[in-house]
Amino acid sequence: MTHVFGFAIESMVAVLLLLTILYCVRLNKQLLRLKADEQSLRATIGELVTATEIAERAIAGLKVTASATDQTLGQQLTKADMYSTALAKQIESADALMRKLAGIVAVSRPATAAATPAAQPQQPAMPDANSMAAAAAAFAERARLRLATGKAA
User: Fold this and answer.
1) Domain ranges of the chain
2) pLDDT at site 59
């Protein structure tokens, strides 16, 4: 019986050793997979670092571009403001010229003041665009003739 009892204990130890070896083989495979995953993770981290550096350079370039664009836009806004002021002055000058031309056209029309009572002063009506254009053309033609005759004399 002691042989059977010794044999049973030896058999159990052998089974436990076999289970331990199988468990070690399984752990070894998992460790190998983990090391392979570590290598791929390192590669991924390397790619991420490279992409981050590229993005930082792109952001720096965008900052420089935004600064240059801001400066250019500021200059263009300043120019636009100057042109706007100049245009406003030219519009005022054109208004004054239109009032003068309207006065010239009003004087050159036949007087109809006899038909209206003298007691009621009437504001001169604004002439239509065609008569204004014709009067301006006549005025310009007379000015050209005066210049032409002044140069010839």
Assistant:
1) 2-95
2) 95
